[in-house]
Amino acid sequence: MLVLKPEDTRIKNAITLLHLLLKEDGISRVGLSRMTGLTKTTVSAIIKEFRDSGIVEESNQVSTGNIGKSPIPLHIRADVVYTIGVHIGRERLETLLMDARMNIITHKRGEDYNKFGQEGVIDSLFSNINKLMEYAKRKEIDVGAIGIGIPGPLDARAGIVKQPPKFKGWKDVPLGNIVQKEYGIPVWIENDANVSALAEKWLGSGRNIHNFINILLNEGIGAGVIINNELYQGTYDFVGEIGHFLCYEQGQFRYLEDIAGVDVLLHLVSSQGLRVKSLKEIAELLQQDNQVANSIVKKLATWVGSAIVNAIHMIGPQTVFIGGEMVVLGEPLIQPIRETVSHYLFGEQAVNIQFSSISSKAVQSGAGIYAMIQWLEKKEYRNLKRLIS
What is the span of the domain harbouring residue 69? Predict the structure, then answer.
């Protein structure tokens, strides 16, 4: 049994309240006490610390019509920290600036760099961050942290990009240190599928779902896993790598993303004499009921569906969200996935398969949220350690 010291318990309680304040904007002290089971005295003491450190503010009391003091709504201060969220994809880079209430202030889409090497991608990264920094300076906004979502495998704690498949020239790159040295503010990196799941949890259709899987269907295929409302990261930063589920095809084992990634889909369709350069053009063929395109998409979707069945049997989610570039294909993609899951799912559990509600900005939003939460937690940890000592 784990025995917590009093100061550890206080920090744990503070982090719990911090997360609730982020999720339930306008909640009162009474509401926090009711939702957590903490005493009103404990809640009030922690909220006082939040207010003193500039994390939380109050708004006007809300009249309930009942006798007694009306509850006072509490809010995370939007200006307590501003973060930049970055999505480093295999073909392009996208960034945004957000406040501590997860409002997106502005966003930038970088140029395609699929022919760049590592240095070119980092140059593009700096160029896009610089544009947001210049915008922030004009608006008198002080950026406090940067979050980066990038394909794994990673050593997220050390900020190192190991060697992502289909990402040439990247091996053991200390990206966190490179960016932190450039801008002098905290930088966190995390797997793109993981931060995408965070965005779905905080901003999308996963807000009220306790257990779900969020899948990114891009050149690589990955998944972020939310268990009991928390991002599950495991020990070695390899959680959710369903793109490396083994599939047996044509007499050999192959990884899922090597037979069902976006690049594979484009190649297969083009090899059948259909001149396409983008997923949008494939989507147009599907709308025209092109049988060749339909057949190829259905085959790839069936492979994805089989991987989802395996993931469901391991994790037991309520919902599986489908995000990433392939969502543009619509029903011809998701229907075969649903059919495969329905046919092979063990037991009678009901698992909803649906498209992500925030797919287009999911990774950069999630990266900004991840950096914001890390920054707030570290700020409060330091404050409480100072008070305890």
Answer: 6-77
In this structure, the answer to whether residues 232 and 142 fall within a common structural domain is no
Identity at 185, one-letter amino acid code:
I
Spans of the chain below 70 pLDDT: 1-7, 61-69, 114-116, 384-389
How many beta carbons lie within 10 A of that of residue 350, not counting itself?
8
The end-to-end CA distance of the chain, in Å, is 26
Distance (Å, whole) CA 26 – CA 262: 42
| Domain final residue, candidates 39, 61, 77 | 77
Q: Fill in the DSSP letter of residue 26.
A: T
> 66: domain CATH number?
1.10.10.10
Residue 2 confidence (pLDDT): 41
Whether the Cβ atoms of residue 337 and residue 297 lie closer than 8 Å to each other: no
Domain boundary at 50, 77, 104, which? Answer: 77
Q: Which two tokens stand for residue 88?
A: 């480093």
Residues 213 and 353 in one domain: yes
What is the pTM (predicted TM-score) of this model? 0.91
Contact 188, 119 (CB under 8 A): no
One-character DSSP codes across 199-217: HHHHHSTTTT-SSEEEEEE
Q: Looking at the domain assignment, is residue 389 inside a domain?
A: no
The number of folded domains in the chain is 3
Cis peptide before 153, with omega less than 30 degrees from 0? yes
Pairing of strands 82-88, 143-150: parallel
Q: pLDDT tens, 247-294?
A: 998 899 999 999 999 999 999 999 999 989 999 999 999 999 999 999
CA distance 229 to 214: 13
| pLDDT per residue as tens digits for the range 97-131 | 999 999 999 999 877 776 667 888 899 999 999 99
